[in-house]
């Protein structure tokens, strides 16, 4: 398989999260696996683990193919599942990552966000990043995603990156 570059917007978001080698990270909506690749590279020198989910079978397949070495090393688990039906067995996540996942601002997602709050360790955080493709939607995205996180007890902050154009809504436990 040809080597695929990690887009600048994904690189910036992963760098912003400050993933540590011992972190346990969940990615929601792993798609082609670029975020997984960037995060797993930061976990290689430690005991950290990555769990990636996507509702799409093709997204799961693409992520597994792109990151097979991390799967083989036992660092990465990839599953086709919806966040609403995810059952994380223990409370040990440090970080949750999602990029361009509309769930958090297009419909009610109380149960999903409550699950994340319950499964994150104290001090853990949910990082929701969105590429700014439609500037007229940015304020609505920020307001709704922030409200979804705050409703279950997350402390919310917003970051904005001009180049590449990305906004982040961060919920800290």
Compact description:
Keywords: Methyltransferase, Transferase. With 173 residues, this protein is of the alpha/beta class.
Helices, strands, pairings?
Blueprint: H1 8-17, E1 24-28, H2 34-43, E2 49-54, H3 57-66, H4 68-72, E3 76-80, E4 93-99, H5 103-106, H6 110-119, E5 120-131, H7 138-150, E6 155-161, E7 166-172
Parallel strand pairs: 1-2, 1-4, 2-3, 4-5
Antiparallel strand pairs: 5-7, 6-7
Keywords: Methyltransferase, Transferase
Pfam family, one: Methyltransf_25
GO biological process, one term: methylation
Mind explaining what this structure looks like?
The protein has 173 residues and is of the alpha/beta class. It is 36% helix and 28% strand.
Extended strand count: 7
Sheet with the most strands: spatial strand order:
3-2-1-4-5-7-6
How would you name the CATH homologous superfamily? Vaccinia Virus protein VP39
Low-confidence stretches: none
Order of helices and strands: HEHEHHEEHHEHEE
Q: Gyration radius, to the nearest Å?
A: 15 Å
Keywords: Methyltransferase, Transferase
GO molecular function: methyltransferase activity
Enzyme class: transferase
InterPro entries: Methyltransf_25 (IPR041698), SAM-dependent_MTases_sf (IPR029063)
């Amino acid at each position: 398989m040809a080597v695929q570059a990690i887009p600048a917007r994904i690189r910036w978001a992963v760098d912003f999260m400050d993933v540590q080698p011992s972190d346990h990270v969940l990615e929601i909506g792993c798609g082609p696996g670029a975020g997984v690749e960037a995060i797993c590279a930061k976990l290689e020198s430690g005991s950290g683990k990555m769990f990636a989910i996507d509702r799409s079978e093709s997204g799961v397949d693409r992520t597994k193919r792109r990151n097979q070495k991390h799967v083989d090393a036992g660092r990465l688990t990839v599953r086709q599942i919806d966040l609403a039906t995810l059952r994380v067995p223990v409370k040990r996540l440090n970080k949750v990552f999602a990029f361009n996942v509309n769930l958090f601002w297009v419909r009610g997602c109380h149960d999903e966000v409550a699950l994340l709050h319950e499964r994150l360790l104290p001090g853990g955080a949910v990082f929701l990043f969105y590429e700014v493709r439609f500037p007229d939607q940015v304020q609505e995205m920020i307001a709704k995603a922030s409200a979804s996180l705050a409703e279950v007890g997350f402390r919310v902050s917003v970051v904005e990156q001009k180049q590449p154009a990305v906004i982040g809504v961060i919920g800290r436990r």
